[in-house]
Amino acid sequence: MNLSKKLLAIIIAFSSLFLISTGFAFSKVFAMASGTVKSKDGKPIEGAKVILLFSEDGAKYELTTDEKGKWRKANLRPGTYTIGFIADGYEPQNINTTLSAIRENEPIDIRLLPVPESPLSAGDSLYGQQKYEEALQEYRKVLSENQNLYEAYERIGLCYYRLGDPDKAIENFQRVLEKAPQSRDVLINLSAIYFEKGQLEEGLRYFNQLDEKSLSDPNLFYNAGVLLFKNNQTELAGQYFKKCLELDANFVNGYYQLGLVNLNKGDLEGAKRNFEKVIELAPESEKAAISKKILENMK
After folding, report:
1. 179 neighbors 154 (Cβ within 8 angstroms)
2. Are 234 and 253 spatial neighbours (Cβ–Cβ below 8 Å)?
3. What is the spatial distance between Cα 151 and Cα 295, in angstroms, rounded to a whole number?
4. Cα–Cα distance measured from residue 280 to residue 287, given in angstroms and rounded to the nearest whole number
5. Fewer beta carbons below 10 Å: N end or C end of the chain?
6. How far apart are CA 241 and CA 224, in angstroms?
7. Which of 1, 30, 50 lies closest to 99, judged by CA?
8. Is there a common fold for 27-112 and 217-299?
9. 240-288 pLDDT tens trace
10. Where would I find the beta strands (DSSP E) of 92-175?
11. Could you read off the pLDDT of 125-157 as tens digits, one per residue?
12. 3-class DSSP state for residue 35?
C-alpha cells in the first residue's frame, strides 16, 4: 500500500471513530425544564410543589419553588411530561409538555388561582369559637340564599346538638342523607345521638350502614357495645368491644367491659384475662381497683 492509500485509510478510520463518538455523546444529551409559580396577581409562591411525571415510564421528579417562586430541573430525559403544580390555599394545576434535548425549552410560568372561600366559612369560624347560636343563624342565612347547599344542614344539625336539641339535630342530619345517603360523618352522628337517647335499634340502623373499615375511632364501637350490654344484647356487645380493641389495643375501658361480658356469659377464663389486662394497663385507675375485687371474688 502506497503512502497516499495509507493516509486515506487513517482518515477513514478516524472519521468512523468520530461518528461513533458523536453518536454516543448525542444519546447522552439531557433536557432541562424551568419556570415560576405565582399567584393570580403575580406574587411568587414559595414552597409550591412541582411534580414532573415522565409519560414513557412513569418516572417522577419532585421539587419545590424558591422564595421567588422559581424552579429548575436539569438532567431530564427528553420526551412528554405531565407537570403538576400544588400549593396550600391554591387550586392545583396540571399541564402536558414535551421537553427537547436539542433546543432550549421555554420557561413554564404558571399562575395558580386561590381556592374559593366556602360560603360556610363564616359559620364554621363561629362554631369553632363555640358560638353555636350565632353559627346557627349564619348557616340559616347561607341556606336561605342557596337551598341546594345541603352541607349547611349538617352544620345546623351540629349546632342543635351542641345547643341540647337532639331532635332538631336528627331532623337536619336526615336532610343531608336525602342528598348524600352514604355520608360517613352524618351516619356516625345519627347513630351516636340515637345511642345517647337509648334508642338502640335506630342507632344500629345507621351504624350498620357504615363501612367498618373506614372507622378509626374505637369509641364508636365502645359506645355501641355499652348500650347493647345495657339492653341485654350480651353476645353482640362483646363483638363491638372486640372491634373497639382491634382499633386500640390499649383501650382500658374496652377490656373492662369485655370482662363484664365474659362474666355474664360464664366465661371465667376470658373474664380473668381481660380484668388482668385492665390492671396491667392502668394499675392506679378505678377500673383496676374494681377488677382486682372481681378477681378476688372469682378465686
Report:
1. no
2. no
3. 51
4. 11
5. C
6. 9
7. 30
8. no
9. 999 999 999 999 999 999 999 999 999 999 999 999 999 999 999 999 9
10. 93-99, 108-112
11. 999 999 999 999 999 999 999 988 999 999 999
12. strand
User: Which of helix, strand or coil describes residue 112?
Assistant: strand
Q: How many residues does the chain have?
A: 299
Residue 146: Cβ-neighbour burial (10 angstroms; 0-12, 13-18, 19+): exposed
Q: All 3 cell numbers of residue 293?
A: 375485687
Domain ranges of the chain: 27-112, 117-215, 217-299
Phi, psi torsion values for 158, nearest 5 degrees:
-65, -40
Q: Which CATH number fits domain 117-215: 1.10.10.10, 1.25.40.10, 3.40.50.410, 1.10.8.60?
A: 1.25.40.10
Computed over every residue of the chain, the mean pLDDT equals 89
Alpha carbon distance 123, 66 (integer Å): 36
CATH topology of domain 27-112: Immunoglobulin-like (2.60.40)
Residue with cell string 427537547 = 100
